[in-house]
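Example for tutorial group B:
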């Protein structure tokens, strides 16, 4: 039986995802803002502390991706390669280092969902939309001062968050919150359903062959809603730090297990 993940078959073609490495190319819209640091602390696992500087800083990021395995076969079958996501990033301290961490994330395709479970992203299904930049015509913004973008996140038929951006000027980097190695938890409950875990790991990862381009700083506004089944509102915006647009590419092959147990 072949396949990196289920379902396994003699050919392996039915696997939801191919074996790593995985390659990503896309664009991101980011809002960085401040929230109550106490709420950030509530979302950290045992033994992980708030960041020393600006502990309430949060990034909410919308991304439009094309992804593929090493043979790039998905690029000829775009339904298996294209997806969008929206994710929150906070920062924390562990083992004397500053890390980025994703407490909430939504995607719109099953392969992206389960790929995230392998990496430690707590992905849920959602409906994600974001404005595309244009190079011809008038049906969208250009990458120039004054270009306006919008994005929305909905889940279970309810609006979770929305944001707008107005491009101001080129920037050197698309913010600071999502700039560190990721600190994630991989968790899966035991089949006995008795509170024990089959997988309980603190892990880290970072991509390779990463590139960024067309980085723009922007004036941004954001709203986060209260919904019955999603708790992004725990990171309620109190003050906008800034906004960004940029193009991005990266590849990912493997992570590192830092600790087992105690999530």
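The residue assignment follows.
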């Amino acid at each position: 039986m072949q396949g990196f993940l289920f379902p396994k078959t003699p050919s392996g073609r039915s696997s939801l995802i191919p074996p790593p490495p995985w390659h990503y190319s896309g664009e991101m819209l980011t809002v960085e803002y401040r929230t109550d640091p106490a709420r950030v602390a509530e979302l950290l696992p045992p033994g992980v502390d708030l960041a020393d500087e600006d502990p309430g800083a949060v990034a909410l990021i919308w991304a439009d991706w094309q992804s593929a395995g090493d043979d790039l076969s998905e690029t000829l079958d775009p339904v298996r390669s294209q997806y969008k996501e929206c994710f929150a990033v906070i920062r924390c301290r562990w083992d004397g280092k500053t890390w980025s961490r994703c407490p909430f994330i939504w995607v719109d395709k099953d392969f992206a969902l389960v790929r995230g479970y392998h990496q430690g992203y707590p992905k849920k299904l959602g409906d994600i939309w974001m404005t595309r930049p244009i190079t011809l015509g008038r049906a969208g913004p250009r990458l120039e001062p004054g270009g306006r973008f919008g994005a929305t996140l909905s889940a279970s038929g309810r609006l979770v968050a929305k944001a707008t951006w107005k491009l101001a000027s080129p920037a050197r980097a698309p913010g600071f919150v999502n700039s560190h190695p990721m600190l994630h938890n991989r968790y899966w409950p035991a089949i006995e359903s008795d509170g024990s875990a089959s997988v309980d790991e603190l892990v880290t990862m970072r991509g390779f062959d990463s590139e960024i381009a067309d980085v723009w700083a922007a004036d941004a506004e954001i709203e986060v809603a209260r919904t019955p089944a999603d708790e992004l509102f725990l990171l309620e915006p109190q003050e906008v730090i800034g906004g960004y647009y940029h193009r991005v590419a990266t590849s990912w092959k493997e992570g590192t297990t830092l600790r087992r147990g105690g999530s």
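Helices lie at 37-42, 110-119. Compare this with the pattern of hydrophobic and polar residues in the output above.
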